[in-house]
Specification:
44% helix, 8 helices, alpha/beta, globular, 7-stranded mixed β-sheet
Length: 242
Amino acid sequence: MKKTVKPYKESSLSKKEQVATMFDNIAGNYDFLNHFLSLGIDIFWRKRLVRKLQKQKPQNILDVATGTADLAIAMMKIKPFNVVGIDISNGMLEVGRKKIKQQDLEKTIQLQQADSEDLPFKDATFDAVTVSFGARNFENLQKGLSEMARVLKPGGKIYILEFSKPTLFPFKQLYDFYFKFVLPLIGKLLSKDNAAYTYLPESVKAFPHGKELNSIIENCGYTNAKNHPLTMGIASIYTAQK
């Protein structure tokens, strides 16, 4: 694994604690910045993940690192019986709870503060587990993946939506410039946390992708790990079965 990237380089707090603090700081602006900085493409990516879920038709779903519950809400299209969203940032969860209440989804979606590496659920509880742009924030990726495998029912599936790295010229060069220079500048101007949008490109650069991540997933208790690139490789959906 590559070096651990943390939001606050001068802080002695663990990555987990720093990530929770960072997301608490930016929770109020997170949805706006997320859609603005990605030009709205992140909405399309979540819809692609939901389409893959639709083929499985899971009834009980765990959404890890749920944040403001965008993916959990998008899942309502497939009419699951129950969705549980967990996150370490209570600030993000509070925003998510308001959105869920506004859409009258409280009977189907429950949000709770919890650690992805120590899930408060019994073995074999869920039909599917999802993570949307949260896996690279885990302090221990293998531990988080193993915990998700533990709470999955036999035959259940994981779906991970995460940034990857485009390779096609000149798109790769344009993407790298935007991600390294433009995105952190806009994030700094519009966010209350200067480190948040510098951490984003750094964490993406350090995170495994493609076949490397498939291999890590399979070593954590899954089979048939596959990656599905999106938008010329800016992001990918990873799927695997327990």
